[in-house]
Design goal:
There is one protein chain. The protein is mainly alpha-helical and 306 residues long. The protein has 2 domains: 206 residues, no CATH class; 63 residues, no CATH class. It is built from 11 helices and 2 strands, in the order H-H-H-H-E-E-H-H-H-H-H-H-H. It has a two-stranded antiparallel sheet with strand order 1-2. Helix 3 runs parallel beside helix 5. It is globular, with a radius of gyration of 23 Å. It is found in: Membrane. Keywords: Membrane, Transmembrane, Transmembrane helix. InterPro entries: ABC/ECF_trnsptr_transmembrane. This is Energy-coupling factor transporter transmembrane protein EcfT. Pfam families: CbiQ.
């Protein structure tokens, strides 16, 4: 339940949901259009600054622990299945079943680290999105962006699905331990076998929840046509409009820069130089300044509302 939205008394939580959605979606797109380590590092610092002002460090650490497992898996899979590059670090000429010759290249290691860095960034954006934005604000915010209601519902349901799965898993673990199932004792193989036994009840709970959601939607005539009314209506202030326009304009400018070659890092067949050039560093300064400017405008808008 630590991964669900809980209101806090700071200007990030009190700010408009549409504004927060536009900021985080912008960071999400930026993490895909650039692959240079320096650019990804700036985006990483930008999301950490938002987390710092949001005061949700403890909750976000859960995503870090989960991301560690995925990162290790991704790292080794990428090294084994994609051994490209010219700088060979380790090589075995003997044939392996299904793999043939095996080698590890420096380019593949760097590529794997960049992929992990990008995945971590996406997980942080996803976690921050889930923690600082009220689900009702997500629905209304996406609707204001003219996204169809069915797609909005799917997005909202998926964002809340992951915390519920973790909550169910914790309950199932406690129930199984009360029944005498040892989950933490024994060697790695026995621990793995015992933890696999948690999957079946977890899937059963998920299927039952999906049926309940479908019945609830049918009872509320979700697919009915016509204008929808909301109990609470999001009001967008003048400062909010400025932030949204600035965020969208900045994102369009960054997409243009990506087509001009900024933030593109060549990995294969040989790593390109990390050096960006003066213009590249100016872009990094602009990206950092934009984030601080947006946070400053959020704080100003909160003070004006008060």
């Amino acid at each position: 339940m630590q991964l669900t939205y809980k209101p806090k008394e700071n200007f990030i939580y009190r700010s408009n949901g549409v504004v927060k959605i536009s900021i985080l979606l912008s960071l999400f797109v930026q993490s895909f259009i650039f692959n240079h380590p320096f650019y990804l590092g700036v985006f990483f610092l930008n999301i950490l600054i938002i987390i710092l002002f949001s005061d949700c460090w403890e909750e976000i650490l859960i995503y870090f622990r989960f991301m560690l497992i995925i990162s290790l898996f991704t790292f080794f899979i990428n090294i084994i299945l994609y051994p490209e590059g010219t700088t060979i670090i380790f090589q075995i000429s003997n044939d392996f079943p299904l793999l043939g010759g095996f080698k590890i290249t420096f380019e593949t290691i760097i590529s794997s680290l960049i992929i992990i860095f990008r995945l971590t960034l996406i997980f942080l954006i996803f976690g921050t999105f889930n923690l600082i934005i009220n689900p009702d604000e997500i629905i209304q915010g996406l609707v204001k962006l003219k996204i169809p209601h069915s797609i909005v519902f799917i997005i909202t349901l998926s964002l809340n699905f992951f915390p519920l799965i973790l909550k169910d898993l914790e309950k199932i673990r406690e129930i199984q331990q009360c029944k005498g199932l040892e989950l933490e004792k024994g060697n790695f193989l026995s621990k793995f076998k015992n933890n696999v036994k948690l999957i079946l009840p977890l899937l059963t709970n998920s299927l039952e929840r999906s049926i309940q959601n479908a019945e609830a939607l049918e009872a509320r005539a979700f697919d009915i046509k016509g204008k929808r009314e909301y109990y609470q209506v999001i009001k967008i202030s003048f400062i909010d409009y400025i932030i949204i326009i600035f965020t969208i304009s900045s994102l369009i400018f960054q997409i243009y820069l990506s087509f001009q070659g900024f933030g593109n890092y060549l990995i294969y067949p040989t790593l390109s130089e990390v050096y960006l050039g003066n213009s590249g560093y100016f872009v990094l300064i602009f990206l950092s300044f934009s984030n601080f400017l947006i946070i400053g405008l959020l704080n100003l808008g909160d003070k004006i509302e008060k």
